[in-house]
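Entry 0007
Protein: Sporulation-specific protease YabG
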Amino acid sequence: MKQGDLVTRRSYGGDIVFKIQEIRQQYAVLRGVELRLLADAPLLDLNALPQLDPFPYMAAASPQWLDSLKRSTAVSPMPAAPVKPQPEMGEKIKLSPVYFDMPGKVLHLDGDPFYLRKCMNLYNELRVPAEGYYVSESNMADALYRLLPQTRPDIVVITGHDGILKHRNAGDMTQLSSYKNSHNFVNAVRIARQYEKNRDVLTVIAGACQSHFEALLHAGANFASSPARVLIHALDPLCIAAKIAYTPINDTVNLMDVIGLTHSGLEGLGGVESLGSYRRGVPKMQYTTLT
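Output (structure tokens):
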């Protein structure tokens, strides 16, 4: 076996498909293909899978699920502006009373390049303006410190891989030291809140599989994983971000509706009341001036 191979774990009944991130002596560091889980296992515990494109393993992202998400981000169509001839010199330009859409802008930091590509494709399909960056979880706080002033987003997604450590103090689930990457996500959320304290101005979505939900919320996240310390799907953070991007700025996001879009539900994600970031403008300009 080698880095990049798709595998399952015999000791867990082959329930989760992983990709080998790194091999350290007789152990492999594993990242979930469909779930945002970081794990390790002895090489002898691994079963090799057909080395296909990982996308087929993300079966939960079915057309039916995607259609549901598209409906949730749909806005009422506005009439198209009539095509008008170019005005003559000195003639007053008449603006057409047609609305234009301004969904919220997303800054998406992901600790997995495969998930990032999948998310960026879906943001584009859902017409959500987004900038995405592959950043290792340990570097996310520093990256946000640089990127937030540059990108000025309405929504920040801080995600990657996480998990509860096998070797931890028995029963101690309250300490960040019991999690693989929750402390890195908490540090990144704190940087986001240093940049913008108001949760209604900057919406922060943070966490991955089994992340320390309470610590992320206390650090300033609007939405976080994982209340029941369960595994979450790779696209769950995107579901919430897309819904917020198309919820009007004067409306509170319906918590049950937005979490209902995710695969993990209330066990996997939770949050606090937050405003949307979608705006409409008028008029829709017929001519633009290049400068």
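Curator remark: The chain has eight helices and 13 strands. The first strand starts at residue 6 and ends at 9.
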